[in-house]
Design brief:
Layout lengths: L11 H8 L3 H9 L7 E2 L5 E2 L2 H15 L4 H12 L5 H35 L9 H7 L4
Antiparallel strand pairs: 1-2
Length: 140
C-alpha cells in the first residue's frame, strides 16, 4: 500500500492504490456522498487529497468489519464530527455486533444440520439419500 499523498492532489488510480480500494469503488463511495465534494480538474478528472485517501481507508476498514453502507455513512459522519458522543459510535458497533452474532448462530445451525445429513448419507451406489430427502422436505 502506498503512502498517503503529501504533495498535492492525486488521480483516482493513485488514490485507489493508496487506499486499497478499487477505482470503481472509489467512484461508488463518492456517488454515495461518503467522500464529500471531490475536486476536479478543468477537464473533469477527479483529484483526491490526503484527507480523501484517509477517508477511503476508513471506509475499507469498516467494510472489512462487515458494516453496511448505511452504517459506514453514519460512522464517517461521526468520525468527521469532533463534537460527537462516543456513545453514538458504540451504539452502531453494538448493533452490528449483535447482527453478526445472530448470523454466526444461524451458520452454526446450518453446519450442525449439514453435518448430521452428511453423517446419515451412505455415500455409496444406492439411490436413497437423506440429504436430498431433507432438501425436498420428505425426510423424517
Amino acid at each position: 500500500m502506498s503512502a498517503t499523498p503529501a504533495s498535492g492532489p492525486i488521480g483516482i488510480g493513485e488514490a485507489a492504490r493508496a487506499s486499497g480500494v478499487s477505482a470503481k469503488m472509489v467512484r461508488h463511495y463518492e456517488s454515495l456522498g461518503l467522500l464529500g465534494q471531490v475536486a476536479r480538474t478543468d477537464s473533469g478528472y477527479r483529484q483526491y487529497g490526503a484527507a480523501d485517501v484517509h477517508t477511503l481507508r476508513f471506509i475499507r476498514r469498516a467494510r472489512d468489519l462487515g458494516f453496511s453502507m448505511a452504517e459506514i455513512a453514519e460512522l464517517v459522519s461521526l468520525w468527521h464530527d469532533r463534537s460527537r458522543a462516543s456513545a453514538d459510535v458504540k451504539r452502531i458497533a453494538q448493533r452490528h455486533l449483535a447482527e453478526l452474532e445472530q448470523r454466526i448462530a444461524a451458520l452454526q445451525d446450518m453446519r450442525r444440520t449439514l453435518d448430521q445429513l452428511v453423517c446419515h448419507c451412505h455415500g455409496d451406489a444406492r439411490p436413497d439419500c437423506p440429504i436430498l430427502d431433507d432438501l425436498a422436505g420428505t425426510s423424517g
